[in-house]
Amino acid sequence: MSDVAETGGRRARGGGGATRRAERTAVSFETAKFIQRNIPNFEILNEEALQIIEYNAETVLEEIGVNFVENEAALVRWREAGADVRGERVHIPRGLARKLCATAPKTFTQYARNPERSVEVGGRNLVLAPVYGPPFVRDLEGGRRYATIDDFQKFVKLGYMSKWLHHSGGTVCEPTDVPVNKRHLDMLRAHMVLSDKPYMGSVTEPSRAADSVEMSKLLFGADFVDQNTVMTSLININSPMTFDGIMMGALEVYASNNQASIVSPFIVGGAMAPVTVAGTLTQVLAEILAGVSYSQLVRPGSPVIAGAFVTSIDMNSGAPTFGTPEAAHITYGTGQLVRRLGLPYRSAGSFCGSKLPDAQAAYETANSLNMGLLAGVNFMLHACGWLEGGLVSSFEKFVMDADQLGTLHHLAQGVMMDTNGQAMDAIREVGPGGHYLGCEHTQANFKTAFWRSDLLDYKPFETWAEEGARDTQTLAAERVKKMLGDYVAPALDEGIRESIDDYVARKKASMPDAFM
Amino acid sequence: MSDVAETGGRRARGGGGATRRAERTAVSFETAKFIQRNIPNFEILNEEALQIIEYNAETVLEEIGVNFVENEAALVRWREAGADVRGERVHIPRGLARKLCATAPKTFTQYARNPERSVEVGGRNLVLAPVYGPPFVRDLEGGRRYATIDDFQKFVKLGYMSKWLHHSGGTVCEPTDVPVNKRHLDMLRAHMVLSDKPYMGSVTEPSRAADSVEMSKLLFGADFVDQNTVMTSLININSPMTFDGIMMGALEVYASNNQASIVSPFIVGGAMAPVTVAGTLTQVLAEILAGVSYSQLVRPGSPVIAGAFVTSIDMNSGAPTFGTPEAAHITYGTGQLVRRLGLPYRSAGSFCGSKLPDAQAAYETANSLNMGLLAGVNFMLHACGWLEGGLVSSFEKFVMDADQLGTLHHLAQGVMMDTNGQAMDAIREVGPGGHYLGCEHTQANFKTAFWRSDLLDYKPFETWAEEGARDTQTLAAERVKKMLGDYVAPALDEGIRESIDDYVARKKASMPDAFM
């Protein structure tokens, strides 16, 4: 990628340092503020059900226990905290995990390098981040193929330019053309340089988590990172009830540096958890209690998000299924349980099993996005771009979903009940049989009254047909092309950028390539 | 259509009357019971907001009033009830409409000719009925074209065979090849003969409503129709606040025969109602209060559903938009207001503005269907098949949406909290690091645990690619073809069918064709 693209496509005429030059030439794309809900959450479980699940989850922790694998330090920490540790199995006495969770903050700020794009995680807020993890990408022209670092950079650019996306995410796709032990460096660099939204760190090795912290210090300054949270990273639990050494090692790096982790059971219902909703909720809560507690054992007060990645399974084929009613039940229920723990909550996303960004993909995704909003989710990973059960990051679906995220912002606003909202004067003015289009109240409000898609087709049939009868995927492909053509990088101090590039180059030179 | 198709494609070998012969040869397709919610409703308005809107709605009725147009009898009824009638404007004193609404039943049974398919409208139930009204149809092969009676019959057959659809609906498309003044006869005949689910009557003229009642008497018996509700028909209000003579004439026929009407404002926000949500809710409530009251003035205790058809408008083009956040706010809010009136509620549907059954259509539809379930809707018209802002009934989208309606059934079940649901034995059996697929609890529950689409693709990528890489529309087109090929009519007494055919023939012969 060229310098020109990254500093705004234009050169400053002269004077001032690198920073001022960059600031003067950069174009900024509009980003909405993270969602602050003004609507209630949907509560599917009653008090009795919640208490049963809470009781059962503590029974699981005490009686069955959880495994902390290949992690002697974790077993020591648990023993010192009062758990009954037998081999790698940690039995947590009733009440202990809940007590340990109490030191985790209810909300925290994740800072972005552009302070306007910092996010508040927790409370009634919802922060939206893009798809995470797929080894493949798909677009209309090129079809399905292994992802590369070039694809990765494109997704970061699209995320930066997406109005309703608050977060740049992490592994927006796996850059499979970069060695496994070096790709985290290129990924982090892309988020830091090509976007100014908050981002996630690497979790595939504790040393890569440490690289993420070091690179963040170059971007934000070491003191700032010591005192503030600038990364939120994804720590999956190996359900059922297993915490592996590598993931926990990454969590330890982040927690000890006061950086946030999402502690998240990864569950395909019927495989990694019981086939019933209440059973899954019990296991999810037990896993969250153990994982969040562990983050607090590492460093009390370190920021953490309680997560739940949950899908159901197609019992005919064994395939995971998405946007299903059972996943919705679990997502709603987990939200209630997590709120009772006073923790921020991560769940839902643009989940779908479809191979194409077609109607199936959209039904399943819309089911999940709507559920995520009403379930009280605070951090929604995978909020756009997910395809084919998470195997594929889709360029078209990225912009399709990112557009739909606008509906969540408007839904969350709730109903304005002031005099203008009540509109009694308009009703009086228009009267029976009249028409509101021309009335004063409509004129005064129409620009902000209704959410409007920037992508979908609202044209009359004849116009639409004349313009080529394009379906949503085709419209989206055109939008992707236009956005990538219009992309201009956010301003960044040249010195900072050089220090990041140096770090990446040095680290890469320090080790042989590994592809496994 | 041939006799063979309608009686099951096979002839009985002999013996017995027409009825027994039909019964023996008919195949019955599985239909789910109407939804009985075991989950809460989503309540977007707080008590204060509800009271403000209720107060304002009564202000509208008293101070501004509503028009009953070309309907002298209605004005007389209103005057006698205590309203202040000036010309065609009816001013309804505060409290009167609410009092009149109190005689409407909270719930009622709409009988189907197959008693297993009768539905309970109101309470915590949700009855799903197909698309209503489009002059065009679309399918993958034939594209978009004017609808015919042949199309109409195909949609009735698809509705009859759709597991998650409880109701055969009404004008599933406009059979434009049949004269305007005769098509209601063919439409009713199709619902009566080709399906055994409940149906809607004609509302385009009071005389056609009367035909609907007469034909229903042939199907159910005159006494039965006198004493029971066998039709639910759609009475739109000309918003703002205008009740026209033809629609009210049809309502009068139905109410006086104890048949149900859906009294429904038809609103494109910003055009027929204020551009703000609270203003629209106020007008919708005023219109519902006036319309439902009028049904009770005609016959106290007659069954009625309070409806709200609400979309927003694209202020750039003036086009109606669907699946939008503002429509959701209004649908949630109207649900709360209608429940406080103790009336059954009609709203939501498979709404979309897209020209194709593509991702746009599915996003918008899923937004609306999910909202409809959580808003406490009791009768969902347009629950499948709607395309292009209601101009088109889509064959593919009909089966796509009808499949998605299964998710609403499962969502509504809520979370089972019995011992089996809690699954503690399964969690104990499997333990940390184990796998639930083989465990006893999974084996015992897997068949019913998860909703499974009958249409969408859950296959691995390679299988899907080998099978032609079909998108949802293609899968749906194949399903439509298969269903219509497999269709077998429900059993019907030959004598009854002949009497219906005679009625249709006689009525058609009694008047010249009209095409306007």
Automatic annotation (TrEMBL), chains A, B:
The record's annotation in InterPro entries points to: MttB-like_sf, MTTB_MeTrfase
The enzyme class is transferase
Q: Which UniProt keywords apply?
A: Methyltransferase, Transferase
Query: Does Transferase appear among the keywords?
Result: yes
Region feature (Disordered):
1-23
- Which EC number applies? 2.1.1.-
For this chain, one GO molecular function annotation is: methyltransferase activity
Alphabetical GO biological process terms: methanogenesis; methylation
Report the Pfam families cross-referenced here. MTTB
Source domain of life: Bacteria
**Similarity annotation:** Belongs to the trimethylamine methyltransferase family.
Protein name (database record): Methyltransferase
Species source reads: Cypionkella aquatica
Q: Which gene encodes it?
A: mttB
